[in-house]
Structures are given as structure tokens and as C-alpha cells.
Amino acid sequence: MTKRQDISSRRSRDEKLRDKEQEQLLKALQTSIDDYSSYQKSTCFQNYSDFLTVFSSWQCPYGWHKIVQDKVTCLS
Fold it and tell me: What's the number of domains the chain is made of?
């Protein structure tokens, strides 16, 4: 295998890995949003700070911050 072929095969392998990671992150983010939506439908909060208290206790997948409705983020 020539050096050029080696570099291009390594690059395509890296790109496939990156695509797979992005796919997993998107799936995790979608799950978070779905969880939040179903939780929101089943719960009424007295005020915004109650909401933040509960929301901040949730796990963020892959260390991502959840960004949902009005830029509320999951506090890690």
C-alpha cells in the first residue's frame, strides 16, 4: 500500500467514526428532548425555580447540555 492510499483509508475510517459519534449524539439529544416533552406534559410546576431544580437533576447524555424550550440547559 502506498503512503497516499494509507492516508486516504485512514481518513475515511476517521470520517466513519465521526459520523457514528454524531449519529449517537443526535439520538441521545432527541431522547432527551422526548423525555423532557413527556415529563413536561405530565407535570405542572409551581414556578420556574421548581422546574430548574428538577431539570438540573437529570442526566445529560454524553455530557451534552440539554437545550430545550427557552434555552433552559441541564445543569451538570
Answer: 1
